[in-house]
Amino acid sequence: MTWKNNRQLDLRERAQKVIPGGMYGHESTKLLPSDFPQFFDRAEGARIWDADGNEYVDFMCAYGPSLLGYGFKPVEEAAASQRARGDTLTGPSDVMIDLAEQFVAQISHADWAMFCKNGTDATSMAMVIARAYRDRKTILCAKGAYHGAAPWCTPRMAGITPGDRANIVYFEYNDADSLADAFKQHEGDVAGVFATPFRHEVFADQYVVDADYAQLARRLCDEADALLIVDEVRAGFRIARDCSWESLGVRPDLSSWGKCIANGYPISALLGSEKARTAASTVYVTGSFWFQAVPMAAALKTLEVVRTTDYLEQIQRSGQRLRDGLDGLAKAHGFGLRQTGPATMPQILFEEDRDFRIGYGWVTECMKRGVIFSPYHNMFLSTGHGDAEIDFSLEVADEAFRAVRARNAELEPHPVLVALLGL
């Protein structure tokens, strides 16, 4: 089928009139190749169809929420069963208790759970609880680390005042001396430290954290009686069935979860240890839709699948097949690829591509042949990515490498990206 985008262009024109910028947030395609689809119609498994009916194997998984594939039947049935009884009610359903019990049973450090809607809700709630724990102000965050889109953490500073960041102190990620110095400079007032399971920022290679650094973060928090917070919103359940830092011998006091915990239904969670329970019970956090029963039922079923199946091993195998295949194809066509991070959350960048023109060209060629990759953001594997999807994606990638090699001299950098990154 020939790729087309007539309806897409019409929808973009309409959106420009009634939505600021035509779209906002991470769902905006402003930083993507100009032809990239902005609007989608339906999805199933690992496949998604845009507004023009073009079909793709999708390696974005809705930017992470699809863990078990779009429309995974057991989750959809659990959600439908709860929907028939009720969703947004005057009070929560008992499924909230079931879900909290199951989360606490599955995550080693957790003694209690609270639920909200987005990852930003969960990280912001963690920050408030950390401050309430010992009535302190200072929160330590790694420079450039993404923890959401609230004023205290958004990566864009338009509309943000110095007061919004007054008590946020930054240190270098995975740098023991930098972290220790931040504690020393704010001795007696550190409320909490945020950490991501590994470094997963845009336009950059991903890398794992050193176990010594993670253990130092735990020790410094213990010595200062501050709370260690692991932000699992992006990585949760894609690299481990437990909290990601368990493999490093580190248990946090709080962990924030979101994206895939209900396979696409809108819910996030904050899990905490016993020491933070009193602080959690004293803060005021809420939302009109935080107590919806349908997403909780979907999350409960998703946790069951996480607990009882080999879903993780499936996506690890598929991710490694994709990684190995792309590496061989790139070399055959004379390209150097940097594939970093877990194979289940791949970041794909090109060597000698400072302004990303090669990566953007390759991603565009893949997209027009039926595979969605990102030229700058980490991607995601789901159990919907089976052998057929990986085989097809590698065939498309081969053609795309060939096409980019043929028109390499014609490639131009993305104008918005040039302005944003100062290239």
Q: In words, what does this structure look like?
A:
With 423 residues, the chain is of the alpha/beta class. The chain folds into two domains: 6-60 and 310-421, Aspartate Aminotransferase, domain 1, CATH 3.90.1150.10; 73-308, Aspartate Aminotransferase, domain 2 (3-Layer(aba) Sandwich), CATH 3.40.640. It is 38% helix and 14% strand. It has helices spanning 6-18, 73-85, 95-106, 119-134, 176-185, 211-224, 277-282, 293-308, 311-332, 357-367, 387-406, 415-421; strands at 40-44, 47-50, 55-58, 112-116, 138-142, 168-171, 190-195, 198-199, 207-208, 227-231, 254-257, 268-272, 337-340, 347-350, 371-372. The strands form four sheets. A seven-stranded mixed sheet has the order 4-12-11-10-7-5-6, sandwiched between helices. A four-stranded mixed sheet has the order 1-2-3-15.
Give the count of structural domains.
2
Main sheet, how many strands, which sense, barrel? Answer: 7 strands, mixed
Average per-residue pLDDT, rounded, comes to 97
Shape: globular
Instruction: Give the tally of β-strands.
Output: 15
Rg (CA only)? 22 Å
Termini, distance in Å? 37 Å
Give the low-pLDDT segments.
none
Topology readout:
Blueprint: H1 6-18, E1 40-44, E2 47-50, E3 55-58, H2 73-85, H3 95-106, E4 112-116, H4 119-134, E5 138-142, E6 168-171, H5 176-185, E7 190-195, E8 198-199, E9 207-208, H6 211-224, E10 227-231, E11 254-257, E12 268-272, H7 277-282, H8 293-308, H9 311-332, E13 337-340, E14 347-350, H10 357-367, E15 371-372, H11 387-406, H12 415-421
Helix pairs in contact: 2-8, 3-8, 5-6, 9-11, 10-11
